Amino acid sequence: MAGLRARRGPGRRLLVLSTLGFCLMLQVSAKRPPKTPPCPPSCSCTRDTAFCVDSKSVPKNLPSEVISLTLVNAAFSEIQDGAFSHLPLLQFLLLNSNKFTLIGDNAFIGLSHLQYLFIENNDIWALSKFTFRGLKSLTHLSLANNNLQTLPRDIFRPLDILSDLDLRGNALNCDCKVKWLVEWLAHTNTTVAPIYCASPPRFQEHKVQDLPLREFDCITTDFVLYQTLSFPAVSAEPFLYSSDLYLALAQPGASACTILKWDYVERQLRDYDRIPAPSAVHCKPMVVDGQLYVVVAQLFGGSYIYHWDPNTTRFTKLQDIDPQRVRKPNDLEAFRIDGDWFFAVADSSKAGATSLYRWHQNGFYSHQALHAWHRDTDLEFVDGEGKPRLIVSSSSQAPVIYQWSRTQKQFVAQGEVTQVPDAQAVKHFRAGRDSYLCLSRYIGDSKILRWEGTRFSEVQALPSRGSLALQPFLVGGHRYLALGSDFSFTQIYQWDEGRQKFVRFQELAVQAPRAFCYMPAGDAQLLLAPSFKGQTLVYRHVVVDLSA
User: Fold this and answer.
1) In the chain, what percentage of residues exceed pLDDT 90?
2) d(CA 97, CA 118)
3) Are 251 and 280 in contact (CB under 8 A)?
4) Cα–Cα distances in Å, from 406 out to 208, 341, 355, 370, 409?
5) pLDDT score recorded for residue 36
């Protein structure tokens, strides 16, 4: 028996140990804590919080129950779209002390429960208008101590219940891009810590909340290419006839006066008709007593007057213009004096004479020879103070001013504009109570002169080598001057009311223009630039709000 007990000892001990081990395993298993949720190596996590340092991207394998996330010293610089969309329960997000430079559109999309967002002490220099889209529960937002110089308009619009905003420590440039923020700060219920301007110098260290809105001059304008007419032209004249808008263009290259019609539906100029004119230099439309006439001035082959026949819907020649009187026309000017219609032709030949024609019953008849033997280049009719005047410019002498005599029923020479020895073009405009002349010169500076009651005085000289055309014009409350050149692009100047001078405003890619023409067409304000060397360009005047 004893031997038997001895032989059974080891087996029984093994059984007992096995049984004990099994029991211990059961005991240990029963006391094991719950399984730890997933957590990236760079983070410390609990069931609902995560604190991450030196992460190379926004951690993806975080517990879905996380409601608080902190990222510090992250090893990436851009927060991309939907970067946190895998954490839909997030309520607190702290992104301080990183090197973030860019936050993409919709970076926080999907975080509809987020209440606190802190993005402080980073290098963010710009934000998108849609950066905070979807954050409908956000109450606290801090962008303090970044490099923000401006903020897009309405960036805070999606934040319906935002109660606290911190923008301190940013180098805000208080120009027109910040105007909306000044307006928003004046009306929002959000508590905003005081923020200060870093620039421009006149607003430096000023509190943004205290900036007066009147100090922001944020409306500017621009001329943008609107339509290209694929042909050269040397004159452009808009006109209204039977409630429609038309444009007459002299095209010597096409041997025609081309008539275009404004299409109010397509908002474009369309081909309408053509008048044969092998060497046209000017096509001047005139609507007299409801009838449409076009004076066609040509360098060779004589000049003519055409009449539009509404019954046959075509132009027919009405009369010739005396070729012995008008030899080399250069410009046409049409006007009314005391109810009578006139047109004048500037003649640039050695033997011709600038002449005046008057409408009488059924045609235009020679009324007066104005200026002979002087190579006249341009005409400008001025009807101011009840005293009609005609100014004639010449390439061989100073411009001459004629005044209408109601007694003699003709123009009488009044004097010369002695400040300019020669001029290719002459135009006028009024600014306030003052009258001005603009004179372009091919060699030498173009001049701006002001009428002083008894004489003109020079107020400005504009560099303009090779200039044959200039035109002052008014669009809304904006006054401009277009100055062309055969050797460089066209310059647009804008009138500075304070300085009473034109300042350079914009350069247009128009070479060798022969005229400029302002044409309002419905809500489109157009500037036409017929060019002798290239296409005729149509620019549209647009108003730009820099605070938008």
Assistant:
1) 81
2) 10
3) yes
4) 63, 15, 18, 16, 5
5) 55
Selection from 72, 95, 170 nearest residue 126 by Cα? 170
For residue 293, count CB atoms less than 10 angstroms from its CB and return exposed for 0-12, middle for 13-18, buried for 19 or more.
buried
- DSSP secondary structure letter of residue 32: P
d(CA 140, CA 79): 19
What one-letter code names the amino acid at 368?
A: Q
d(CA 10, CA 414): 143
Alpha-carbon distances of 312 from 122, 305, 315, 509, 513, rounded to whole Å: 76, 17, 8, 41, 35
Those residues of the chain that have pLDDT short of 70 are: 1-37
- Contact between 41 and 50 under an 8 Å Cβ cutoff? The reply is no
Q: What length is written for the chain?
A: 548
- What b/e readout covers 20-41, taking b as 16+ CB neighbours within 10 angstroms? eeeeeeeeeeeeeeeeebebbe
Cα 103 from chain centroid (whole Å): 28
Cβ atoms of 102 and 83 closer than 8 Å: no
Sheet strands (E) in 446-500? 446-451, 456-462, 470-475, 478-483, 490-496
Contact present, 67 and 48 (Cβ < 8 Å):
yes
C-alpha closest to that of 93 among 106, 82, 102, 84: 84
| pTM for the predicted model, two decimal places | 0.78
DSSP class of residue 145? S
Note whether 236 and 548 are within 8 A (CB): no
Nearest to 157 by CA among 131, 182, 192, 191: 131
Please write the tens of the pLDDT for every residue from 74-131: 999 999 999 999 999 999 999 999 999 999 889 999 999 999 999 999 999 989 999 9
